[in-house]
Structures are given as C-alpha cells and as structure tokens.
Amino acid sequence: ELKVEQNPLFLSMQEGKNYTIYCNYSTTSDRLYWYRQDPGKSLESLFVLLSNGAVKQEGRLMASLDTKARLSTLHITAAVHDLSATYFCAVDVGNTPLVFGKGTRLSVIA
Amino acid sequence: KAGVTQTPRYLIKTRGQQVTLSCSPISGHRSVSWYQQTPGQGLQFLFEYFSETQRNKGNFPGRFSGRQFSNSRSEMNVSTLELGDSALYLCASSFLPQETQYFGPGTRLLVL
Fold first, then answer.
1. Least CB-packed of A65, B5, B8, B23 within 10 Å?
2. Cross-chain Cβ contact A97/B105 below 8 Å
3. B86-102 pLDDT, tens per residue?
4. CA B10 to CA B105: how far, in whole Å?
5. For A100, which residue in chain B has the nearest alpha carbon?
6. Which of A33, A42, A47 to mutate to test the interface with B (most CBs of B within 10 A)?
7. 8 Å CB contact between B81 and B16
8. How far apart are CA B88 and CA B34, in angstroms?
9. Cβ atoms of A99 and A6 closer than 8 Å
10. Which of A41, A43, A96 to mutate to test the interface with B (most CBs of B within 10 A)?
11. Are B6 and B23 in contact (CB under 8 A)?
C-alpha cells in the first residue's frame, strides 16, 4: 500500500525567510503533484513532476523530484503572506488512485 | 474555459437520510474522481470514473455509490447518512486518467 508522508505538518514562517516542505512516498511513482488549498476553498494544482531530477518553478515556489530517494521537495523563497495556505503532495502509481499526503499548513507572519 | 462545478455547495441533512451530489467536469474531460476531506482523515479517495466506467473505488462502505453519465457528468450518493459523513466532498476532473486533476469547489455536507 502506497504511503505518502509530508513534513512538517505545520509551519510558521517569517516573511522573507526560506523554507522547504518534504514529501516522502513508499513505492515507485509515475508522477507527483503539488496542490495548494486556501482555507474553505478547493485544491489548486501547482506542479506535476514526471521524472527523476524534474524541477518546476513558479514565482517563489520551486518543486523538485528525486525518484531514487522517493522524495519531493517544495521550496519557498522569501515567503510572503499570500503564500499562507495548506500544501499537499499527491502521488500517482500506475492505475491506482492518487494518494495524498496529510498536507502542510503554512502560515507566513510579518 | 469553465472549471469543475459542483452542486449543491452546502447541504445539511439528518442521520438516516440520503444525499446526492453532482459534479460537472471541465468541458472535454472524461475522467472524474471523488474525494472526501475531513480534518481527521485528510483527503480520501472515493471513486474514479472514466467513460461511464468505474475504474477505481476507495475503501468506503457500500452506502457510498456513484455513477458517470455519457456527458461525463458524475453523481455520488450516500445513503443512510451517519454523523461521520460530515465532510467536504471534492470532485476532480482530468482529460484522461493519470493526468493532472482539476478540483471543483466542493460540497460541504453537515449531518446532524
């Protein structure tokens, strides 16, 4: 059974600081996704990572994938308040359903 | 392009009742998945449909059922509601299975 673990689950960051969210998964994956969810809202797709060494960047967020380590990271650069949200990674393996991590609740404070 | 739509957005029911939730995917998308989101359990997979066929089913009791129509719209039904069914139910669509899923706004169900 595929397991997806995110850490930390809660993260309080100061504006302007950098931090990384980690996503570990237990079996070989076809692709890995990162989603963002604002309070009371739905999930917004951020990145899809398809192969070992893949790196995607959008604004202050950068995601990477190491399939050998079964690890993806979401790096936040110079955090701003607008990045406050819950971030989920999700792993796709073959024809099985997407499995989500428990999410990292990020709070950016002044 | 319009996004995924879900109706109703909010619903209050009492224990023992049944409920039907509806999802209209993004135009052209033929794959629809349903998820239940709760604070305690996080995001849990319910069903996946593609071209009117159920491809996968999550580990939920038989009270949870779903279907997909020829126009790719999907419904899920929960019978004999229990308090623990209170949750945000999210629908997601993709052009094909195993492609990026785009989520709807969700239906927030409260069971009293």
1. B8
2. no
3. 999 999 999 999 889 99
4. 11
5. B43
6. A42
7. yes
8. 11
9. no
10. A43
11. yes
